[in-house]
Amino acid sequence: MIVAMQEAATEEQIQSVIERMVELGFNVHRTTGAQQTILAGVGTPAHFDVHEFQVCSGVHEAYRISSPYKLAGRSFRPEGTIVRFANGVSIGGDEVVVMAGPCSVESREQILLSAQQVAASGAKFLRGGAFKPRSSPYSFQGMGLEGLKLLREVGDITGLLVISEVMEISQIELMLPYVDCFQVGARNMQNFNLLRELGYVRKPVLLKRGIAATIEEVLLSAEYILAGGNYDLVLCERGIRTFETYTRNTMDISAIPVLKKLTHLPVVADPSHGVGRRDMVPAMAFASVAAGADGLLMEMHPNPEKAFSDGAQSLFPQQLDKLMDGLRALAPVVGRYIAKPAYAL
Ligand code: PEP
Ligand code: MN
């Protein structure tokens, strides 16, 4: 931490700041310039709040130098993390892994058809919510356990891995036998109790960015999961809320290279929730891969116009196919690849 004192700071004020820094465990290096005194605090005490120093009398400004997240920081694993799943699929390597499927599991017929189309497009994961966080309590809330069983069944039929959202601690146990990856939704990014529990689970987690979360907050949420010992963690940019209303959210493409710089964790992008309209999903998907995304999470529905949730942002099956062809061509430009489909309709 660096504390720059005001030009008019008294020696008493400077000493009081130094005392507090020492008390917290900092090794303090003082530079007394012609105009101003600078205090450099070396070391990273477990508990300290830079804001405490910003409001101390005589202080002009205080900055944090080291990051508040330790396990999520790039320096913890400079080579990057590769999260490995069954079927030899991994996220964080050279392959760009695509996860696709409907917003919600609606019926056996709908999810089976979805899985077949997703597998035929060359995606590796089937997505689908069995527990749905809906803005209105009167909207479809998901099929629950029945939906999970269907996801597993059709995932196994088509050779797809399964990702589905976990909304609360009590669902973890229930979901374990059915999913290959837990999805933590935007609304739960700061459900710290849930994050802590997922840290004790030995199954990968995909953590989505909250609608108003800063990148630092995403990384601090990731830290909760890592602190429990679960290193199989993937982050997901899914758009944030801004003053713009044309799109559902504002897809923060720049968060992808920023996260890749700050953390060793793989980063995937969800352009569906990022823009909320299917006509703009392909452009954002291309942009995400070009920006360095390790994967994509996208909504596709066999009949989007009849979808129980998020139909407007769900791709038609043929659109997903076409997009996958385009992405397969783009990926090598940024040193990545997307494998050809191993499943045919
Ligand atoms: C979803 O993936 O369907 C979903 C609810 O996403 P988010 O948490 O990003 O809104
Ligand atoms: Mn959705």
What this model shows, in words?
The protein starts with a strand and ends in a 15-residue tail after the last helix. The protein is elongated, with a radius of gyration of 23 Å. The longest helix is centred in the N-terminal third of the chain and has 14 residues, at 11-24. It has two domains: 2-66, Phospho-2-dehydro-3-deoxyheptonate aldolase, domain 1 (Alpha-Beta Plaits, 2-Layer Sandwich); 83-334, Aldolase class I (TIM Barrel), CATH 3.20.20.70. With 345 residues, it is of the alpha/beta class. It has an eight-stranded parallel beta barrel, surrounded by five helices. The protein has helices spanning 11-24, 50-54, 108-121, 145-158, 170-175, 192-199, 215-227, 255-262, 271-275, 281-290, 317-330, and strands spanning 2-5, 27-32, 37-42, 59-63, 83-84, 90-91, 97-101, 125-127, 161-165, 181-184, 205-208, 233-237, 267-269, 295-299.
Q: How many DSSP-defined strands?
A: 14
Beta fraction: 15-25%
- The helix/strand order is EHEEHEEEEHEHEHEHEHEHEHHEH
Helix segment count?
11
First-residue to last-residue Cα separation: 59 Å
Task: Give short descriptive properties of this protein.
binds phosphoenolpyruvate, eight-stranded parallel β-barrel, elongated, TIM Barrel, alpha/beta
Structure, briefly:
The chain has 345 residues and is an alpha/beta fold.
Helix-strand blueprint:
Elements: E1 2-5, H1 11-24, E2 27-32, E3 37-42, H2 50-54, E4 59-63, E5 83-84, E6 90-91, E7 97-101, H3 108-121, E8 125-127, H4 145-158, E9 161-165, H5 170-175, E10 181-184, H6 192-199, E11 205-208, H7 215-227, E12 233-237, H8 255-262, E13 267-269, H9 271-275, H10 281-290, E14 295-299, H11 317-330
Parallel strand pairs: 7-8, 7-14, 8-9, 9-10, 10-11, 11-12, 12-13, 13-14
Antiparallel strand pairs: 1-3, 1-4, 2-3, 5-6
Helix pairs in contact: 3-4, 3-11, 6-7, 10-11
